Amino acid sequence: MLTTVAKSSSNRRSKNSPILILIHYYHYSSSSSSSSFIASSSTNNNNNNNNNNKIPVLPSPWTAPTPTRDSDLLVSSFKDWFNRRNNSLLDQIFLILNTQQLHNDSDDLSSRRSADLALSQLNLRLSESFVLDVLNYGKGRGNDVLSALKFFDWVGRQPGFHHTRATFHAIFKILSKAQLMSLLLDFLDDYMKQRYLHKVRFYDTLVMGYAVAGKPQVALKMFGRMRFQGLDLDPFAYHVLLNSLVEESCFDAFHVILNQIRLRGLQTDFTNAIVVRSFCKQKLFHEAELYLRGLLTQGRQLHGHVVTVLVDALCKTNQFQKAAKLVQEFRDSGLVPMEDAYGVWIRDLVQAGQLDGALDFLRTKKSLEGYVPDVFRYNVLICSLLRENRLEELCDLLMEMKEGQISPDMVTMNAALCFFCKAGMVDVALELYNLRSEFGLSPNSMAYNYLINTLCGDGSIDEAYRVLKNSIEQGYFPRGRTFSILADALCREGKLDKMKELVIVALERNFMPTTFSYDKFISALCRARRVEDGYLIHGELDRINKVTKKATYFNLIHGFNKSNRGDIAARLLIEMQAKGHTPTRALYRAVICCLCDMEYPENQFFKLLEMQLSRHEPNFQIYNFFIDGAGHAKKPDLAREVFEMMRRNGIEPTLSSDILMLQSYIKNERISDALNFFSDISQRRKIKGKLYNTIIVGLCKVNKVDIALEFLRECRNNGVVPGTDCYEVLIQMLCSNKRYDMAINLINDLEKTGRHVTSFIGNILLLHSLKTQELYDTWVNLKEVQNDKSSDSSLLGLLIGAFSGRVRVTQRVKDLEEAIEKCFPLNIYTYNMLLRRLSMSEMDLACELFNRMCQRGYEPNRWTYDILVHGFFKHGRKVEARRWAEEMFQKGFDLTEHTQLLI
């Protein structure tokens, strides 16, 4: 199959589409047949062969058509086809009626007069058939009930025109189909009170109305009143009543009315169809067949609708084989036109999920009998193919309709619009949508959803929003998934003013989007530093009892923290707890820090603490949150006050309370207070590993290494084994201060506890080895003095020597990896150190190591790439350096300043 790629002039992302096959044909066949995309060809049951038959042989040399021309040809051709409807007058009528509906209330007198005037200026030639055409046209527009009622009312008030039984029946059916029974009954009650105003047969209208409204008993009562007055129903009303008795399963009354029809000689094909329907309603399918065969023995041609009733009933009860035999039998008789039965057969197959069977049936009947479905049956197939994403077959049917000059209705046009969206040609769909006024297209909800969703997925957010605004003007507002997709796109692209408009319109229409959509919007506003707007939306959610998500509360609170509005952040903290969300320690900490930066911080701090204590049973956790928060806010005195309050209220501080208070002092470099507090703790509890770890690590972070070493010795003397993190942070600080002898002694002490050198410690040693040879010299001297000849220690020393340049590096990358792995576990930082070492002399080995690292599942980071780029530049291999830099940029990384100086 020959395909091409479609692109719009606006450079939208394109996809392969089956319809593009037709574009090529159009280029070379339009001169001979300008009215169609594809030449007629015999239909073949094999779908692939059928498509191949439609593809012409392209002349040589062949030049691919331009994307803009592709789109223009498709738009022009489909526009010409859509214009064949020639329903511009009906479109004008409904445009006037819809405009009145959108901009005002139906009881607005001035607006009604405006619509009346606009309709009068059309100079319509009113007749029964014209009014029926208008009302039936409304059904094709998605059962536009309100517009139909307005037109019915306006027509009834025009001089010289009086509604007929047919127009009354039409409006009754419209109301019934829309399940507006109460409105229909109100209409009939009002009609009954104003008998003197009506020229049409009064009782006939009432009987029809109540029959259609599903009130056959009332209809029969009206019929009895007529007969008492010496009046009788006309044939049309008789059959409406008879049909309603079948629909409501009033079979005794049905037989009475049927006899009345027969006695008066009013029996027609319509009567026969209702009789067959009565059998089917009672599941008497055999009797229905006998009745139909009895009609055939009379030797006269039957109306196709009579057979259609039984075929439809059999299909609805899943008796497709029996229905198929019946269709074939009556077709062979030659006495029944089968178009209606074929149409119902296709529709019922599709509704039963047998779409392939329906398509095969259509192809067979079209090929053998020349059967061409009406637009309604085509629509059933097209919509089903659309739902199943069978775009190529859908394309074939659209072209088939176009070639057959079957005028599309509103359903067809909307399905075509959706097809172009699904086929990756949203530019064509959008252009047809923009031209909708030319051929009277009124997009339905499905078309709007497809268009908006596809534009959002295509990145055309502004156009999607424009379509949305147009849809609102036409009375449609997207809901559910479409609203969420558009809202997500607007938030993602930072188009928050448009999103705000969307939310306002939703609220004006009493539509409540999902909380998820609101949460995304609020979070986007917070990220854009428009936290006040987010708070207003949150207030609307709260007003209608919608619970904001926990993550959204976090975003709002952090947003107000950044704006130094700790009071609102604290209020939201309380509120989120009332809504059932549990704040984290980090959230408490952020709010407390913000409160402590405000005016009168102590008041704000203790006010929030009191509110928290009043909400919960007093427990150590609440106190701990505030001790932690005050410590991070550089308010250790506030933290101590909370600590003492806790004790006064009879709650014994836990180990975590002691640790948080100790950290509060150390973070704020209140070392003497920290040491005194540590001494106080030792009076209350036995000091174990966690407390030692806290004070040792904390002291190192404020560069009090010597005091930290004293506590490490005390810890060891008391028989407590310090945590690994104590050794790591101490070794890091000692190396930073070039106190390598102490660092090496700590490594020896670590190994005495039965532990091994960690990746962190190993990487620190390699890093300092790259910077100076002093570490290696110190290592060698100490090991000689200590007479340490352990294999692990020797191997680590060799690595330090290799990285410092004092020991020759092996030429095998694998050997280097294995040597390091024997000393400590490798991580990405280790690989970066190794890359730096290799890049000093052997870039090829560095590249080999990079590949091995990736093979082993390590993800290169910014430093990995920067080391390689820097190394290649240093060695004068600029082409390779730029190639690695380009790959680095593609990964989203930037060069360090040190490397940028080499470029």
TrEMBL record:
For this entry, the protein name equals: Pentatricopeptide repeat-containing protein
Start and end residues of each stretch annotated as Disordered: 37-62
Instruction: Return the PPR repeat spans.
Output: 199-233, 303-337, 374-408, 409-443, 444-478, 479-513, 549-583, 619-653, 688-722, 827-860, 861-895
Keyword entries, A-Z: Repeat
Q: Where is composition skewed (Low complexity) in this entry? A: 37-53
Member of which family? Belongs to the PPR family. P subfamily.
- Which SUPFAM superfamilies does this entry report, sorted A to Z? HCP-like
Task: Please name the NCBIfam families in this protein's record.
Answer: PPR
Indicate whether Repeat appears among the record's keywords: yes
Q: Which InterPro entries is this protein grouped with?
A: PPR_rpt, TPR-like_helical_dom_sf
The species is Quercus lobata
Gene name per UniProt:
LOC115975563
Q: Does the keyword Repeat apply?
A: yes
